[in-house]
Amino acid sequence: MTETLPGALPRALPEVPAARSAGRGPGRPVDRGVFRRALAVHAAGVVVITAQSQGVPVGLTATSFSSVSLDPPLVSFYVDQGSTTWPWLRQADHFAVNILASDQAELAARFASKGVDRFAEPTRWSPGPLGAPLLRDVSAHLVCLPYETVDVGDHVLVVGLVAEAVLHGPGRPLLYHQGRFGRFIAHP
């Protein structure tokens, strides 16, 4: 039996009868491939999370960014527990959320790549007032203080308290859909 706090969700995965009949067993209520393909039809905004950790700029691309609360002003994103960037981000005393513009797909791909210096040319950036790298030509940036982290499955939920928000452009977002970057087209 899993013990939970009042109002909290249990951490153990429940038995799902359909999973047993499909031969998947407990704790695997849905086929992983089907789950990934179902999520791929959901379009998501794209951000690059940056920080200065032990004097080194670090960053990663995220599509799990979301607002959490207006009072206090909180935002969140998820990072894979196996990320090589996460240990560096976790040590930072603040981080920046760089909200990418529709023409920044190459920048998003660069910060999603392994084995490259993400801050070398052609990346254009400068240190923000608290030191976190701020990427140039983004639609907006938020500078955040770490507020909470929670291990959730194979990811870590990172919640940040927004200390600064700056708009830079008209706000045409870069989106991620079906494994590709794209642009938003407004419905007439």
TrEMBL record:
Q: Which GO terms describe its biological process?
A: pyrimidine nucleobase catabolic process
Looking up InterPro entries in the UniProt record yields:
Flavin_Rdtase-like_dom, NADH-dep_flavin_reductase, Split_barrel_FMN-bd
What are the GO MF terms of this UniProt record? FMN binding; riboflavin reductase (NADPH) activity
Instruction: Kindly state which keywords UniProt assigns to this record, in alphabetical order.
Output: Oxidoreductase
Write out the ranges of the annotated region (Disordered).
Answer: 1-29
Gene3D superfamilies attached to this UniProt entry: Electron Transport, Fmn-binding Protein, Chain A
Q: What sequence ranges are listed for the domain Flavin reductase like?
A: 39-183
Question: Which PANTHER family does this chain map to?
Answer: FLAVIN REDUCTASE, FMN REDUCTASE (NADH) RUTF
Name of the protein in question = Flavin-dependent reductase
Organism listed in the record: Planobispora longispora
Q: What high-level taxonomic lineage is stated for the organism? A: Bacteria, Bacillati, Actinomycetota, Actinomycetes, Streptosporangiales
